[in-house]
């Protein structure tokens, strides 16, 4: 996608042919900063500190992190150390493990002298695969938006609610939940997006709104608690969110607050779709609520907020009383029964084991 008229991906191989560039998402929307990753430790730190975030992008970053590791140490022991380092960076998004396992399958059978070249090639394939998958997700989701547009009076906007950031910043390009939105906008459909702020890290307000604004998509940032009210008053035509892991039976793990949006959508008859690339599927888990590990992050993400002051300074302020305990659960699980459909690269599927296994027998 584009930033000020220039095409960017969220991660890329630098012109030197070995180091990795990435947009530092911690600095958005107030500063656009490019980070350079040169070691596996730097890649793991980028994932852990959310310099990069979003399940597909975490996977791509881990893949490049393995390539950087193999460049430094192509021994079996060195590669195993890098795998353990990277897989521990964040626990919830299954794409991280998927990408690392793909890298190991490609690297380990090769002689040490060939491993670095193979690692960089496989990491690039994983990145390109993500772009292609998201483009297909966009096409399948576009059909849903077009159907809604056809049912509305001419000239009326299609109002879409999304939560967190499942845009191109969360992937290598296009995004998952936003791919259908970008395609619909580019086709000339009248689109308007309700953007949940998504506390505590404000990925909606700071990242999704930034993305949509740069692409020219009409949008409005709302407080997280506004979605139910909008749905009650028929101001939302459909909700589309991303996900960090989908179980074999269709349970969806996504940014905290997604479950509440799904409940409100269900109560008001609003279609609730989840956009996901196949590497986000986890066929080893049947019960998302009991089996998916939910990351708990630091208290400061809830207790403080960062923004730009009137005179242009970037400042962090505390919004919680000193001494008040803080809990920071990063994700929740939406049961499959609340999901209208799963938008994948192989079509819009029912959220159940039979549909997922039929569409992705290679993963099942």
UniProtKB/TrEMBL annotation:
Gene3D superfamilies tied to this protein: translation initiation factor eif-2b, domain 1, Translation initiation factor eif-2b, domain 2
Keyword presence, Isomerase: yes
Catalytic activity: 5-(methylsulfanyl)-alpha-D-ribose 1-phosphate = 5-(methylsulfanyl)-D-ribulose 1-phosphate
EC number(s) per entry: 5.3.1.23
Signal peptide: none
Residues at the site labelled Transition state stabilizer: 164
MF-aspect GO terms: S-methyl-5-thioribose-1-phosphate isomerase activity
Residue sites binding substrate per the record: 53-55, 90, 203, 254-255
Pathway annotation from the record: Amino-acid biosynthesis; L-methionine biosynthesis via salvage pathway; L-methionine from S-methyl-5-thio-alpha-D-ribose 1-phosphate: step 1/6
BP GO terms, sorted: L-methionine salvage from methylthioadenosine
Highest taxon listed in the record's lineage: Bacteria
Entry keyword Amino-acid biosynthesis: yes
A Pfam family reported for this protein in Swiss-Prot or TrEMBL: IF-2B
EC main group: isomerase
Active site: 244
Keywords: Amino-acid biosynthesis, Cytoplasm, Isomerase, Methionine biosynthesis
The family this protein is said to belong to: Belongs to the EIF-2B alpha/beta/delta subunits family. MtnA subfamily.
Role according to the record: Catalyzes the interconversion of methylthioribose-1-phosphate (MTR-1-P) into methylthioribulose-1-phosphate (MTRu-1-P).
Name recorded for this polypeptide: Methylthioribose-1-phosphate isomerase
Organism placement in taxonomy: Bacteria, Pseudomonadati, Pseudomonadota, Alphaproteobacteria, Hyphomicrobiales
């Amino acid at each position: 996608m584009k930033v000020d008229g220039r095409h960017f991906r969220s991660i890329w191989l630098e012109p030197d042919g070995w180091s990795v560039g990435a947009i530092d998402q911690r600095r958005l929307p107030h500063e656009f900063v490019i980070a350079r990753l040169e070691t596996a430790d730097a890649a793991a730190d980028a994932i852990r500190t959310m310099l990069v975030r979003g399940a597909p992008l975490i996977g791509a970053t881990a893949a490049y992190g393995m390539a950087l590791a193999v460049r430094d140490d192509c021994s079996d022991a060195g590669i195993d150390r890098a795998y353990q380092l990277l897989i521990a960076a964040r626990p919830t998004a299954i794409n991280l493990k998927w990408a690392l396992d793909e890298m190991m399958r490609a690297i380990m059978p090769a002689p040490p002298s060939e491993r670095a070249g193979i690692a960089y090639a496989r990491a690039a394939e994983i990145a390109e695969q993500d772009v292609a998958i998201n483009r297909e997700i966009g096409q399948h989701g576009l059909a849903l938006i077009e159907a809604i547009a056809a049912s509305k009076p001419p000239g009326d906007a299609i109002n879409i609610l999304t939560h967190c950031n499942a845009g191109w910043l969360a992937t290598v390009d296009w995004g998952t939940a936003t791919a259908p939105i970008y395609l619909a906008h580019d086709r000339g459909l009248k689109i308007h997006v309700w953007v949940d702020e998504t506390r505590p890290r404000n990925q909606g307000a700071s990242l999704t709104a930034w993305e949509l604004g740069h692409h020219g998509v009409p949008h409005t940032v709302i407080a997280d608690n506004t979605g139910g009210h909008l749905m009650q008053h028929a101001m939302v035509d459909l909700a589309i969110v991303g996900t960090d892991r989908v179980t074999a039976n269709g349970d969806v793990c996504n940014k905290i607050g997604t479950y509440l949006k799904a409940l409100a959508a269900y109560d008001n008859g609003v279609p609730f779709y989840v956009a996901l690339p196949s590497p986000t599927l986890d066929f080893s888990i049947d019960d998302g609520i009991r089996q998916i590990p939910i990351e708990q992050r630091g208290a400061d993400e809830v207790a403080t907020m960062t923004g730009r002051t009137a005179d242009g300074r970037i400042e962090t302020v505390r919004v919680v009383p000193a001494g008040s305990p803080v809990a920071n659960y990063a994700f929740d699980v939406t049961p499959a029964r609340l999901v209208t459909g799963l938008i994948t690269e192989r079509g819009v599927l029912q959220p159940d084991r039979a549909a997922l296994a039929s569409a992705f027998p290679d993963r099942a």
